[in-house]
Please model this.
Amino acid sequence: MAANPSLQNLKSSKKRKYRLKKKVRNQLIIFGVVVLSAVVLYFPVSKKIDRFLHPRDVGSVQVDRYRDLNALHLKYAKTGGIEGFKTEKGFRENISDLVDDDKLVKIGNTKYYVVEKLTHSHPYLTPEAEELLEDIGKRFRKKLDEKDLGMFQFKISSLLRTVESQKKLSRSNGNASSNTSHLYGTTFDIAYGSVMKKTFLWKKAEVVHGPAIKALSEAVGELRKEGRCVVVTERNERCFHITVK
Model:
């Protein structure tokens, strides 16, 4: 006896509906698992992302106190540096010649440090001072790696000054000596109040990170002990005033 076509169609329709319901149910289960996992992971992951984009201050700033007097800085600056510029006009008119003659090197941001916005100085150093600065950066990075502290950059707050710019600085800063080694291109200031941390792509954040700043202090001290430079820790300006030997 032939099967009833209507009955077969009905059974086939029920099977399709069952398979469809089963597929939808499985999709809903998967969706639920994904949503639940996202909720569980969201808060710890979001905290990590927030810490990455907005680094928190860590620890207090503790640096070594180096006390090489200004007379010692001037001794090495006058021996190994340029004659110096009396005026800002003189600097503008002659800086290109000194760079072309390899007597001065322009200093820009590197993977080790950033140059802050300069108001009373210009981003130039003698080749020997630039080499010292680079070696401080390398030593600093090595210490960060050894201590597993992450990636930081230190900040350069002052470099080559003219007599004119030094006089202006002396009027606003009572601690600024009129006779400074900054005039000779041999001297730079490394700020220790904070360091820079890369957050996302090209963006960076300024942060007080005690262990990283201590590592910077140690790096400076080691090169000083090796006879590469003289250093004074300036408390008021919160910087290491460094002159290459």
